[in-house]
Amino acid sequence: MSESAEIYDVAIVGGGMAGLTAARALGDRRCIVLEAEDRLGGRVHSSHLSSTPLNFGAHMIGPPGSLVGNMIADLNLPARPLPKRVFGIVYEGSRHFSVPVSALPLVLRFGLRDRIAVARMGLTLLRGSRRAAAVARRVESTASGPVSDAVLRFEDGRSLSELIGPLPPRVKELLTAITERNGADPAEMSAGHALRSFASVWGKTAPGNNLVGGTSVLPAMMAARLSGEVRTGCTVTHVANKRRKGGAHVTIAYRTDEREGSIAARFCILAAPAPVTAAIAPCLPATAREALSNIRYGAFLTMAAALAPDTPVPWRNNYAILTPGRSFSVLFNHDGMVDKPESGHAVMMFRGAQGGAALLPNTDADIERAFLDDLEILFPETRGRITATRVQRWPLGVPFAEPGRARLQPGLENTPPPFALAGDYMAFPDMEAAARSGLVAAHKALRHLAKEEGA
Question: How far apart are CA 256 and CA 233, in angstroms?
Fold first, then answer.
């Protein structure tokens, strides 16, 4: 039955932010985290090439007062504020690094028709993001509460493209580049999903921080502080709820490079991506399986690059530089993760949604060549200054809400014990939502165990 004479209190499938936060919240309970990859963190992933930390996935952590921000402080991890300006754009040979978003219609080299379209689009997004923020403030969940139905249903009935209306080709290209980080193109994602994203970053200053040394220091430190067991390179193949002497227990079958095995637990938190969970847990209720099967994911493609210390970096005071019409759609300034100035500079080039999916089949060499060619065209200062690169593919880059997504929520939240679901697909694709879902799942597990023990 199990490799251990004892049964685990809780088994957690998935070692990303949701799974690790759940394990952290379980305290001294006998738990185990099973992670298929050879590392922890999921999309929270960075590494050191030479002396420069390079980041490949999630990169912005919440400020103190947020769930993740408080964990950073508790773990005593060094963090730096993001640059003062969150947004810049390089388009058709012109750089706009200090221009407010509201002034883009005036500075971009557009004709009158396109300028008017950009202005209307910007006004729609601004008003919509303010409405989204107002809804979130009115119904903000507690740290242990479920996702608000009002937040999920906000502008859930139409796509972003339907909200904004027809756009000229160049303006549509601009909008697509802006929204790719949400994992979907404007016609695919719900208007509410896009507006929640704009509400979280819209403003003159950037929210959040970068972790010094790269974001992987967070899952590494979280795992080091756990009292439970953690296994990487351990792919869960099947989860079942079986009745045994002494009550029902969950059995989890897995495989590693060396062997196959199984464990048993009194409760199971499924913190893997939605399609993985749907495939390995046929014992879940039909409503949960249907909901999991209908969660949509968009692809991400990233390439991190290290630059020599003496490289002129015109983006120094900006965090994200939009690059419409290029092989990558955004350049992220990750100098905040670099331990020492003499280590050099760090950037991450990003492509998402349909544009990212189209590039995934290409070789690393082809992707590197395309990204570096465009980097040198946009920023000739970088020519000959690249010291290291690494390509990272994310086929399941990020979950996104298509119109009608809110109807799936009851099936996700109401999974009965001894199971709970966790992951950023439960709410919104960021570290905070992932961590919050893990906390909710852990509280559910603790209530179930307490009820069993009190029976």
Answer: 6
- In the 8-state DSSP scheme, what is residue 306? E
Q: What pLDDT digit, counting tens, does each position of 417-436 carry?
A: 999 999 999 988 889 999 99
Q: In angstroms, what CA-CA distances link 360 with 159, 300, 349, 363, 367?
A: 25, 8, 14, 8, 9
Q: Kindly report, residue by residue over 248-257, the tens digit of the pLDDT.
A: 689 999 999 9
3-state class of 35 per DSSP? coil
Domain regions of the chain by residue span: 8-44+214-295+402-454, 47-62+76-213+296-400
Q: Are 22 and 422 in contact (CB under 8 A)?
A: yes
Q: What distance in Å separates the CA atoms of residue 379 and residue 376, rounded to the nearest whole number?
A: 5
Helix (H, G, I), strand (E, B) or coil at 250: strand
From the list 55, 50, 48, the residue with the least C-alpha distance to 349 is 55
Q: pLDDT higher for 367 or 86?
A: 367
Structure-block tokens of residue 415: 């999974």
Architecture of the structural domain at 47-62+76-213+296-400: Alpha-Beta Complex (3.90)
* The model scores a pTM over 0.90: yes
Task: Indicate the CATH number for domain 8-44+214-295+402-454.
Answer: 3.50.50.60
| Angstrom distance (rounded) from CA 352 to CA 182 | 8
Question: Counting beta carbons within 10 angstroms of the beta carbon of residue 50, is it exposed (0 to 12), middle (13 to 18) or buried (19 or more)?
Answer: exposed
| Token duo for residue 305 | 């690059």
Please name the residues in contact with 96: beta carbons below 8 A apart, sequence gap of 6 or more.
Answer: 88, 89, 90, 104, 107, 108
